[in-house]
């Protein structure tokens, strides 16, 4: 004879076995394969980031952002948008500025319908990279180029230009007071990442493209660095150059000084001169990041 208690224990045990079987075992974790992004446009995660794990989303005050003397991690839930000075129909978020110790600014510009850019201050050069939408760039001679996702432009100091967006567009912009050199000038550049050749990276496994010419007139360059999951920087870098970084794709761990940060697409990092820096790509998809680096000038 089976008592009701025995029947109850049996039925609970059977239903737990059924749950275990469908979940692939009691110790299984949800898949981290990002099915969502594989069918989405390039760099989709930058403007549609995972804000935080669902169990932390409602935790008041939770952010992964960190601000320290020699580095900062600015994650998307911390962005504060406000109208960009003199631009029309454009909201911006300054993410790196000289208030942190940098000699450049890095900001996101969200252009809305019929948005129009303003010029940078006198003697300031500008670099623009499109992460979402498209914008039309026109220079003083009336020459126009359509900038799509993954394309960019470098605008020399005091170079007349205007950017217009018909629909919405998200740009990442770098500006810096040009460190001029006698007998050297820079010229306007328009290009796209996929048209840039892969460069040698002795001792490293990541793939490297540089978006600007490696020529003396340029006082900075923008690197595009690709890592397969499991790849990491071989050199535990400490150097005089500054960096502004936008993670365009993927996720991993960034070491900055003595701190180790889980990072993902949409995150921005400020690295001051000489901050120890190291990255390992994790997850299931490629990491791609865009990196500002000052070059070609004597630090004295
Ligand atoms: O070129 C660089 O300094 C680059 N490898 N740094 C970095 O990825 N943090
Ligand atoms: Mn570096």
User: What number of structural domains do the residues give?
Assistant: 1
Query: CATH superfamily assignment?
Result: Jelly Rolls
CATH topology: Jelly Rolls
Average pLDDT rating: 90
Separation, N- and C-terminal Cα atoms: 92 Å
Q: Which small-molecule species are bound to the chains here?
A: (2S)-amino(carbamoylamino)ethanoic acid, manganese (II) ion
Strand content: 35-45%
> Tell me, what's the shape?
globular
How many separate helices? 3
Second-tier CATH architecture: Sandwich
Instruction: Classify the helix fraction into a percent range.
Output: under 10%
Biggest sheet statistics: 10 strands, antiparallel
Pick out the low-confidence regions: 6-25
CATH class value: Mainly Beta
Rg over C-alpha atoms, rounded to the nearest angstrom: 23 Å
- Count of extended strands: 20
What are the secondary-structure elements, in order, as H or E?
HHHEEEEEEEEEEEEEEEEEEEE
Structural class: mainly beta
Keywords: Signal
GO molecular function, one term: ureidoglycine aminohydrolase activity
Pfam families: Cupin_2
Organism: Citrus unshiu (Satsuma mandarin)
Question: What's the short story on this structure?
Answer:
With 300 residues, the chain is mainly beta. Helix content is 9%, strand content 40%.
Task: Give a written overview of the molecule.
There is one protein chain. This protein has about 300 residues and is mostly beta strands. It has one domain: Sandwich (Jelly Rolls). It is about 10% helix and about 40% strand. It contains three helices and 20 strands. Strands 3, 4, 5, 6, 7, 8, 9, 10, 11 and 12 form a ten-stranded antiparallel sheet that branches. A hairpin with a 4-residue loop joins strand 7 and strand 8. The termini are far apart. The site of (2S)-amino(carbamoylamino)ethanoic acid has 7 residues, from strand 14 and strand 20. (2S)-amino(carbamoylamino)ethanoic acid (UGY) binds near residues 223, 237, 243, 277 and 291. InterPro entries: Cupin_2, RmlC-like_jellyroll, RmlC_Cupin_sf, UGHY, UGlyAH_cupin_C, UGlyAH_cupin_N. This is Cupin type-2 domain-containing protein. One of its GO terms (molecular function) is ureidoglycine aminohydrolase activity. Keywords: Signal. It comes from Citrus unshiu (Satsuma mandarin).
């Amino acid at each position: 004879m089976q008592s009701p208690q025995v029947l109850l224990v049996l039925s609970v045990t059977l239903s737990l076995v059924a749950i275990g079987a469908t979940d692939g075992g009691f110790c299984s974790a949800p898949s981290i394969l990002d099915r969502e992004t594989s069918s989405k446009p390039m760099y989709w995660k930058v403007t549609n980031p995972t804000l935080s794990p669902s169990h932390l989303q409602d935790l008041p005050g939770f952010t992964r952002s960190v601000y320290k003397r020699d580095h900062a991690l600015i994650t998307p839930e911390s962005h504060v948008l406000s109208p960009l000075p003199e631009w029309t129909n454009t909201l911006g978020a300054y993410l790196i500025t000289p208030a942190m110790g940098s000699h450049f600014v890095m900001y996101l510009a969200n252009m809305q319908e019929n948005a129009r850019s303003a010029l940078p201050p006198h003697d300031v050069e500008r670099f623009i990279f499109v992460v979402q939408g498209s914008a039309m760039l026109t220079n003083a001679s009336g020459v126009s180029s359509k900038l799509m996702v993954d394309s960019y432009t470098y605008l020399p100091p005091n170079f007349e230009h205007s950017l217009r967006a018909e629909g919405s567009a998200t740009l990442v912009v770098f500006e810096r007071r040009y460190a001029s050199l006698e007998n050297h000038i820079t010229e306007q550049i328009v290009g796209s990442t996929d048209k840039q050749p892969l460069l040698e990276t002795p001792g490293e496994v990541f793939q490297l493209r540089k978006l600007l010419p490696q020529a003396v007139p340029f006082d900075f360059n923008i690197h595009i660095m690709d890592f397969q999951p499991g790849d990491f920087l071989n050199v535990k870098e400490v150097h005089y150059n500054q960096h502004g970084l936008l993670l365009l794709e993927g996720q991993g761990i960034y070491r900055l000084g003595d701190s180790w940060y889980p990072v993902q697409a949409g995150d921005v990092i400020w690295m001051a001169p000489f901050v120890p820096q190291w990255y390992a790509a994790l997850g299931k998809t490629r990491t791609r990041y865009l990196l500002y680096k000052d070059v070609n000038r004597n630090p004295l």
